[in-house]
Specification:
300 residues; two-stranded antiparallel sheet; 13 helices; mainly alpha
């Protein structure tokens, strides 16, 4: 069957479409796909930015298993991720549930809880550097008021990572807003039907809110894990990996390898290891989500 020739209007629309997507496509090739391909090549080389690169094959990937700091950085990142992400989800969902109630000054409360999430990273780091200061910080002043022992916070290996988890709760505004939008999309008729059936508040939350909100929970969970595996700015500004490498997160160590030690090949190999870990966790979450995420009009 012969193909019908395109009309002049269809050709014009096709050209307009290509022109509209050209800036994004060009940016993706130059700033995403290109660097990713270059990093694959670099991971197979030894290169210090100043001398010609030398082909070493898979040697950089073998070093990943021999370098003890790689294991330390992965453990620190995993510890931070597996504690901070659930806590962030719980705090953000609780805040969203409270802000979803009909209260006076509701818009003010929503703005108040969202503002910390748009605070610049450097200002955020300076604020928490003062709050967690063992000598003059607000955190120890509060502990003294309650009669509890003071902590060294960022300055002690045992409390450094929990301090970063505490700081992470400060920036739950974005997650809270997504939860709030999801809550407002749940039909009120479902709550009314549950109430007629005699369901109390907890039963309505468990049987209506959670199932209807499960796609939003999955979305925030995936984004939370991806973001927490890439923690860098606060660790770089506040502790730079210390004390005793207790906050040496993977991206911070990757930065050191690439831009302080100029070991670009090994840094690229570590970047691809981190990419593989994040990809594996994301795929696992999507696979497991079939058992607990409910899509209205689709399969549970």
């Amino acid at each position: 069957m012969a193909r019908r020739p395109r009309s002049k209007l269809m050709r014009r629309e096709a050209i307009d479409g290509y022109l509209f997507i050209a800036p994004w496509l060009l940016g993706f090739i130059l700033w995403v796909a290109g660097p990713m391909i270059a990093s694959i090549v670099l991971s197979l080389m030894r290169w210090d930015l100043f001398s010609p690169p030398v082909w070493v094959g898979l040697e950089n990937f073998k070093q990943l298993f021999r370098n003890p700091l790689v294991g330390v950085s992965l453990w620190n990142t995993a510890f931070y991720t597996f504690l901070s992400v659930p806590l962030n989800l719980i705090v953000a969902l609780t805040t969203a549930l409270l802000l979803n109630q009909q209260l006076r000054f509701q818009a003010w409360f929503r703005t108040f809880f969202y503002l910390p999430s748009i605070m610049p990273a450097v200002a955020n780091a300076v604020l928490w550097f003062w709050i967690l200061n063992p000598e003059v910080g607000l955190a120890n002043a509060l502990l003294r008021m309650l009669g509890l022992p003071e902590l060294q916070w960022l300055w002690h290996p045992a409390t450094a990572k929990p301090s970063f988890i505490l700081m992470g709760l400060w920036g739950t505004g974005n997650t809270m807003v997504i939860f709030l939008a999801g809550l407002q999309g749940i039909p009120q008729s479902l709550y009314e039907a549950a109430e007629i059936d005699g369901a109390n508040g907890w039963q309505r939350f468990r049987s209506v809110t959670i199932p209807m909100l499960s796609p939003v929970i999955l979305f925030n969970l995936v984004l939370g894990i991806i973001g927490s595996f890439q923690i860098f700015t606060s660790a770089y500004l506040l502790t730079n990996g210390g004390p005793q490498n207790s906050t040496l997160f993977t991206v911070l160590y990757l930065y050191r390898l690439g831009f302080e030690q100029f070991n670009m090949g090994f840094a690229s190999a570590l970047a691809w290891l981190l990419f593989a870990i994040i990809l594996a966790f994301t795929l696992a979450q999507l696979r497991l989500s079939r058992a607990w995420v409910y899509y209205e009009g689709g399969e549970a």
